[in-house]
Amino acid sequence: MKLSARNQIKGAISKIVKGATTSHVTIDIGGASVMASITNEAVEELGLTEGAAAFAVIKASDVMVAVE
């Protein structure tokens, strides 16, 4: 499968926390972590498991930075 999103970072799933309808999937990308909130159905359909290889695909129109 090909995607138009250019920000694709390969890593490994380090944690999956399932809620009532949404799961939080954490992907370790070389010592840093990225977390995605996706439906429980998506977790099942994709066959996600802890330790499996996965890509964090980031598509955002804005990135904000704040300091005190």
TrEMBL record:
Q: Which UniProt keywords apply?
A: Molybdenum
The family database entries (Pfam families) matched by this protein are listed as: TOBE
Claim: Ion transport is one of the keywords in the record: no
- Note the PROSITE patterns from the entry: MOP
Query: Which NCBIfam families does the entry link to?
Result: Mop
Asked if Transmembrane helix is a keyword of the record, the answer is: no
Q: What is this protein called?
A: Transporter
- Cite the Mop domain residue spans from the record: 2-67
